Every structure is written in C-alpha cells, then in structure tokens.
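Chain A, query sequence.
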Amino acid sequence: MGIFRQEKNGYADAIQKGVAALDRFSGLTRGRGSREERLARLRQAIDGADAVVIGAGAGLSTSAGFVYNGERFERYFFDFHQKFGIRDMYSGGFYPFPDQETKWAWWARNIYFNRYVPAPKPVYDRLLAWVQGKEYFVITTNVDHQFQKAGFDKARLFYTQGDYGLFQSADGRVKRTYDNEEWVRRAMAAQRFLPDEQGIFQVPKDRCLSLRLPKELIPRCPDGSRATTNLRVDDTFVEDAGWQAAAARYADFLQRFAGKKVVFLELGVGSNTPVIVKYPFWAMTAENPGAVYACLNYGDAVCPREIESQSICLDGDIGEILDEIL
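Chain A, predicted structure.
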C-alpha cells in the first residue's frame, strides 16, 4: 500500500508514520564532525539533492525577528501589559479578557504585527535564495505567512496549523475561511495606531491607545456566525479547501521523491509540535538510504543515533547559519 492513503492527506499520513517509527529510535545525539565539516556537508547535500523538504517551526520566525516578548512586545502591547499583566504575545492569546471588544483589540494587534508587517530580518529571503531553482516543498507549523511574503511558491507551501490572516466560524461547522486584512487595518486605526511613510502602523507619539474596539468592529463571518482565528487550538479548527489541497500536494511531493536523494531540512522546530515535522522527518530519513536529515536549531540541534550517519546538526541562530552557508 505504501506510505500514503488514497485520499493523499500528507498531514495525517506523515504524523502516523512518524509516531509509528518512534520505537525504532533508542536515543539522541548532536551529530558528527566539526562545524566547518557540517556546513560543508550541508552545502554538498543541498547541491546534490533531487529534492529539499523544508520543515519550519517557530525558531525560524524568531530568527527573522518575530520575537513574542521583550522589547518588541513592550513596544506594541505596553498598555495590555500594564492593565492585565500580560508578558508576551503568545500567552496573551489565552488570556480571559473581560469582553469581546478588548479581546479583539488584542487580536488585531497580534495579527497585524505578526502577519502584515515585513520581517525585521531577511532570513526567509536568504532561505529562498538558497533553495531557489531546486525541487522544494515547505511544511510549517508557523502561522505568520512569511514564506509567501518572501516569495516562496504558494503551491509549494503547507501551513498545517492555520494562518493569522484568516478568520473562520467559531463553531467550525462552516468549512470556509475568510481573509481578514481589511478588518485588521480598520481595527488598528480604531485603536489610534497611525501609519508611517511606508503605511505601517505605529504607536502614536502620545502613546495613547485604545484597549477596546467599537462593538460594531467585533468580527462576524459572512453567514452572520461568530468569527474566530483560523488557528489549530481545538477540534473546531477548519481545514478548508486550500488546506486540503496543500495536504494533498505535500503527499504527492513526498511520494514523487520517495527513495531519491532528499534533504529533510528542519528549521527551528521545537518540542511543542514535533509530531508534525520532526518525527516524520526522522522516519523518512531512516527509510531512505539516500536521504539526509539536517537540523538547524538554537540549543536543540539533535538527531536519533540510528540516523546519525545521515544527519547534520547545526546549533545556533538560523539566520547566522544561513549567512555562513551562503
């Protein structure tokens, strides 16, 4: 029967394959060779590959400057921090706000500054320059749309966990999503953010912002149902037609290059969702003697002992590693 079921859901099939293979791995290692040797092996592997499968996690966007805490958080969310004690953009998404007007003021900012502004650092652009002209496909748990903004081919992208730029019905029964950019920009203006010369919203000089939206700006779907973000937080997440098509394209890509020289390039995948990228990459590398598993990660670049000879582990900031490679 092979790896994939008839419906070609690359998401479900890869997860199943990765989980099933975990028992074959006995422990982790940080890999072999000096840093220079690992960089040279990775360059050679990419140059000689029939295909590159990029698996990206939050660490890639962090390297590109999308930091959810610290100075960047204080710059845009200082008032939410002062009033509610929220300390970072991630935890703020789970905060029990007192009303819908405040909740959606928060989400408008969160979506805008992590989806509709340019990445502070050109890490995605460098990655594209590296794989441009190769057969590549991207599977990512990131929801910030930065691959597309950098110019990656939309038909080669699979956003498994949703997109900050989409709304869906809160009950999940309507299997459609809706672009939210127009609403986000209206909601930012309603909070008194002002566009600069490039049209990017900034905090006004008097730092006087509104923590609440007008009631009429609380988002609704075209059918009148209550809207929510298209993010995989529970079983109401909508896998719309675009999501299904991307899952099928991912399955097709893996099947087309099965058994060939494939580099599974894992970038910044942490411990929150290893079952989507990391474990399937390990499993597919173990099954294919011609495959290479490359893990670029800050502080957690490891591989199973069983595929150490096929693996390249590089510890550090991904943007800096790409600079070294390029």
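The longest helix spans residues 100-116. The first strand starts at residue 28 and ends at 29.
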